[in-house]
Design goal:
- By secondary structure, the protein is an alpha/beta fold.
- Helices cover 38% and strands 15% of the residues.
- The strands form five sheets. Strands 14-19-12-17-15-16 form a six-stranded mixed beta sheet, with helices on one face. Strands 8-9-10-1-11 form a five-stranded mixed beta sheet, with helices on one face.
- β6 and β7 (308-312) form a beta hairpin.
- The chain starts with a helix and ends in a 29-residue tail after the last strand.
- 49% of the residues are buried.
């Protein structure tokens, strides 16, 4: 019969204590001290709390014999060391008979602790412990073993117990994370995506789409948005803002290391990354965001000391903290590395501080990483990570079913097939993705100015050729031209059956949206803006009123951004428009093709574009102003000059949502942009891996990421 771990410890610690008394007595000439009443309950409790794996009878006897051999000078440390050694080397257990024999061979008479005392306390401990030996068996074992031993005091026992427990617990304690990871990390975690991009973590030359993934694999964000939608520390540990609301102080976590021996993360690395990301030379579509936050005239970031940064945004910026957990915004790089090697050489190496170190890429095929065994935050359970580009859903499904993928971003019509697999599990993120109906090129800021053709070629050509009924030649909100184009846009948006798209293409795993990225804040949105009705008859009427009874032609393009049903839903929009007389041309191109055209403001037509679900729609507002890198498809002087600046003045959450609803109302009533749907992101899990939903970085969940929290399924 096996003895429960806590009882093994009871035997070991009591034995150590009593042996210490025997050894001490043999080395003394004077009479033994008067026994002091022993608090057996306290000793039993201490042994119980240690709860370490056990030792066999032979091990115990050997340890005791070795300690006694050093008579008459044996000390508490001698006994503790021998018992700790046995504990380290032997994982086995003892039976009640073996325990009795071992104790009997070691213990002499001990009047300070009676048989009844020990038996009663051990019986009490047994009642609280599952398994192991019975009370009767333990009582018999102790009765057989305990004899009277003069001179044993409470202090003797306590000293011996403390020394033995401290030594043995230290030896048996779990290995530090780096040792555990190096010995236990194993296997390859394989993830499938529709599209990957050229791997690069440069704040100047990396595409924003690539940084969405890089930013929480080999790199890390400054903060993290957890599953409870709480902003928590990551590479910065503290953040605060002064009374003006514009001067932020950030405290950098000490001891965080860059890969490939590029040194410790310091304040200068974060400031360097901020300034490079805000540079006019960057290709990142978030450049206008970074410039607003980190390169305002009279402000910007500065190093206070190695672990302190001060950022002056000049005016209040409602989204400052939000941007610090979005992967494509703050993937911190090593200033030293980039300055020594140059951007072209440093960027593709992907050196960051994340739990995965970049190894290699093969264009159009995969990104490969290896685990950072001693990572400060979470050493991975898998030794290797592979992100694989597999454009076709059927191929991704086949690879998953044959064990070549551990998970992938799944189309919902594949779920019924995968549900048939034994032990299939899923990892779901509610409202993890969000798409919109972008009606390009509704750009009105600077319309009529001399450089408008250069800055807004798409809108300029629309107006010159009178080819875009949804674009007004006059930005005046009260002009007949504006109202005519507004009616066309409204007709286009209410011709779409949003509910049918969600039910048919998303299998119900989504929600129709009237405005983009409000999916997680719908309770803050005024009721009149929450739904865009499906009304094809009214849509036809609006087209007649606008002078387009016979319809018109428009191009339709979906950006492939790893959002469920993004292509199919965009083609469904084209069909709805065909039903009211609008003819369409469908373009099927990767995001890497369409996004530069949108950035240059050359694109004309519908762009269905998705992003990760947002904690606050203010995060996407930067795509709706004239200096945006990537544009949602519109800008307007009233939005830019009157509404957005109000956000800089609000000082409360209530004030924030009042202004955000003003902005929402302006966009909704003028039909400048249409939300499409939010979607629950569903990841099927192979039998090899457990869900890591609790560790997920929700800054942009469509990229999944946080693979360091994925563990092997037993």
């Amino acid at each position: 019969m096996r003895v429960h771990n806590s009882l093994r410890w009871l035997v070991v610690t009591l034995s150590a204590a009593m042996l210490f008394a025997v050894a001490s007595a043999c080395g003394q000439a004077e009479a033994p001290p008067t026994p002091v009443p022993v608090d057996v309950a306290a000793i039993v409790q201490q042994a119980m709390e240690a709860q370490q794996p056990g030792v066999t009878a032979d091990d115990m006897a050997s340890a005791i014999q070795s300690a006694l051999a050093a008579q008459p000078g044996v000390t508490t440390e001698d006994v503790a060391a021998e018992i700790a050694k046995a504990l380290r080397e032997q994982p086995g257990g003892v039976t009640s008979e073996e325990m009795a024999a071992a104790i009997s061979s070691a213990l002499a008479e001990q009047p300070g602790v009676t048989t009844e005392d020990v038996a009663a306390e051990i019986a009490k401990a047994l009642r609280a412990q599952p398994g192991g030996v019975t009370e009767e068996q333990m009582t018999m074992a102790i009765e057989t073993a305990l004899k009277a031993q003069p001179g044993l005091s409470q202090e003797d026992i306590q000293m011996a117990v403390e020394a033995a427990v401290e030594s043995a617990v230290a030896a048996a304690a779990p290995a530090p994370p780096d040792a555990m990871a190096m010995s236990e990390a194993q296997g390859t975690l394989n993830i499938g995506f529709k599209e990957l991009w050229a791997f690069n973590n440069s704040p100047l030359s990396a595409e924003g789409n690539a940084l969405v993934y890089v930013g929480n694999i080999s790199s890390e964000t400054l903060l993290k948005l957890n599953k409870d939608v709480e902003v928590i520390p990551q590479t910065i540990t503290e953040w605060s803002v002064d009374d003006s609301g514009s001067v932020w102080t950030l405290k950098v976590r000490e001891g965080v290391q860059f890969h490939k021996d590029w040194g410790e993360l310091k304040a200068e690395d974060i400031v360097y990354t901020m300034l490079q990301s805000a540079s006019p030379d960057t290709v990142n579509t978030q450049q206008n965001v970074m410039e607003r936050l980190f390169a305002q005239e009279g402000g910007g970031p500065k190093v206070i000391d190695d672990y302190t940064i001060e950022v002056d945004t000049v005016t209040r910026q409602a989204d400052f903290i939000y941007k610090l957990f979005i992967p494509e915004v703050m993937a911190t790089v090593s200033k030293k590395m980039f300055q020594e090697l140059g951007d072209e050489a440093a960027g593709p190496q992907g050196v960051g501080t994340g739990p995965w170190e970049f190894v290699e890429q093969r264009s159009g095929e995969y990104w490969k990483f290896e685990a950072v065994a001693d990572h400060w935050r979470q050493p991975p359970d898998f030794a290797e990570l592979m992100l694989r580009q597999i454009p076709e859903e059927a191929t991704r499904v086949a690879n998953f079913k044959t064990g070549k993928l551990d998970t992938f971003l799944m189309a919902f019509d594949s779920k019924r097939d995968l549900d048939e697999l034994p032990d299939i599990r899923y990892m779901a993120v509610a409202n993890g993705g969000s798409t919109h109906i972008g009606l390009h090129p509704n750009h009105y800021v600077g319309m009529g100015e001399a450089d408008f053709e250069e800055r807004r070629p798409g809108a300029f050509n629309c107006l010159k050729d009178n080819a875009c009924p949804w674009v007004s030649p006059n930005p005046d909100l009260n002009s007949p031209e504006w109202e005519r184009a507004r009616k066309v846009r409204e007709a286009m948006l209410i011709a779409i059956d949003y509910e049918e798209v969600v039910d048919t293409l998303l299998d119900g795993e989504g929600t129709p949206q009237s405005l983009w990225t409000w999916e997680n804040r719908i309770r803050e949105l005024n009721h009149e803006y929450r739904v865009r009705p499906f009304d094809p008859e009214r849509a036809k009427q609006l087209l007649r009123e606008a002078g387009y009874e016979d319809g018109f032609h428009i191009e339709v393009t979906a950006s492939i951004r790893n959002i469920a049903a993004e292509e199919e839903s965009c083609e469904a929009v084209a069909q709805y428009w065909n039903d009211i007389g609008i003819t369409t041309k469908i373009n099927r191109v990767p995001a890497s093709t369409i996004i530069p055209i949108v950035q240059a403001r050359e694109y004309v037509g519908l762009n269905c574009h998705g992003t990760g679900g947002k904690i606050d729609p203010v995060i996407i507002l930067d795509a709706m102003v004239s200096n945006a890198g990537w544009s949602a498809g519109f800008d307007h002087p009233y939005l830019e000059d009157e509404l957005v600046p109000k956000l800089e003045e609000v000082k409360s959450a209530a004030g924030h949502w009042i202004v955000m609803n003003e902005i929402a109302g302006f966009i909704y009533e003028n039909a400048l942009d249409g939300g499409f749907y939010s979607v629950n992101i569903l990841w099927p899990l192979s039998p090899r891996v457990n869900s890591w939903i609790d560790g997920l970085q929700h800054g942009d969940p469509r990229s999944l990421g946080s693979y360091e929290y994925a563990t092997h399924r037993n």
